[in-house]
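From the pipeline queue, job 12 of 40. The input is one protein chain; the requested action is below.

Action: predict structure.
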Amino acid sequence: MTQTTNDVPTRSSPAKALKRPTSKGWFELATFLSDPLTYLPKIAKKDGGDLVPFLLGSLPCTLVTKPEYIKQGLMNEDWPPITRGRLVNLKKWYLGGLFVNLGGEHHRQRDDIWNPILADPIIPKLAAEVTADWTSQWTNGQTFDVFRELRALSFTVDWMAITGEDLRKDPAMLKALEIGCNTLPWLILPLGLTRWSLPLPATLAAKGAQKLINDKVTTLIAARRRSKSTADLLGKMVARRDEPGSATTDAQINSTVMMYFGADQLHAMYAWTFYLLSQNPDVEAKMFAELDREITGMPTPDDMKKLPYMHNVMKESMRLMPPVWGFFRELATDYQLGDTMLPKGSLVGFSPWVTQRDERYWPDPLRFNPDRWEKGAQMPPSLSFFPFSAGPYRCHGTELAMTEMFLMITIIAQRWSMRPTSSAVPQPTATWCTEPKGGITMKLTARKK
């Protein structure tokens, strides 16, 4: 079987089958579901190979750990053979849209709906303004769960950019958006669709949140159509949707709004960044010194080039605590990686959590070391770092995410340092993002320049 993709070598060597484990798949499934962030590195280390076979129930799976094979699997326009697998279950929450489509329709929505949003200057502008206002309300000595606090901040920026409304005045909507993010991970798990069909508390809460968001956005779409206003992203989406020949529907706009919050997982990275800085005061001091030296007022996107060490801190935080811990795809046909043939119907996993902590590619991988990103430093192979995935289904907002991340972290760091209130080490857990289990309670200290 021969496959050719952009920047991916052709595979034409004779294929062999991957030897499958003989363990009980249902036990493996239970172990995986209880803690994927422990299970995946454990099987990868035990196997020691580039393609690690395992079973989830009766489903054969392969964890891909070699960057060359990750590149081949993700940077591939020939879809199928690799499909979105259980991501299609998200239709129950999103009712359609970019995340649950592939091929031509995925690319059309990417180009017609998402790319104009992600290129709009309103998002970085509001990221800076809202963060500055938000953090000005903090007080010296205040404590809070930094994960939940910065999630609320991130969602407030997003909601204001999309609708022009301040989410701080609508706590019910904030709660609905948070419920949505909590719904997504269980919806794609085994029995997720069954769970959606049952009157369970979590399901009823999810359906109530979904209705609240959809009803609100439907009302706002109608209002934008009447007013012709393009002051916010929703108004601009409606205006493009109403252009002659547009293939976009109101339902797709509605799904896009909901997907924006499912896609924004940066708040987890913010929380981990400030925790990691608190545990590495030498790194924090170096970052503060650069920041105080180079930036005197409100930072702008153009200031990113002035703070190379800040950029290193961001990348190292994403390496050690990737916002998305794994990407999983289903094979619609037999598929060859290297000299191994993976069977149709099996699942393929690409895990930033595993590969970005692999000692074969990252010396002293569990150490938080921004210096490893210094210009001229020896770098590991391409796709040993892929926090935003790669290829045609890579996060299309990568550049915006890095800009927004820079602005929000910089503004917070200009004013505040944080320290945990407990010596207990927060445990990362695999939800829709790499979330600190139980949060991270931290205490604010006002910075004095």
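Job complete. The longest helix spans residues 201-227.
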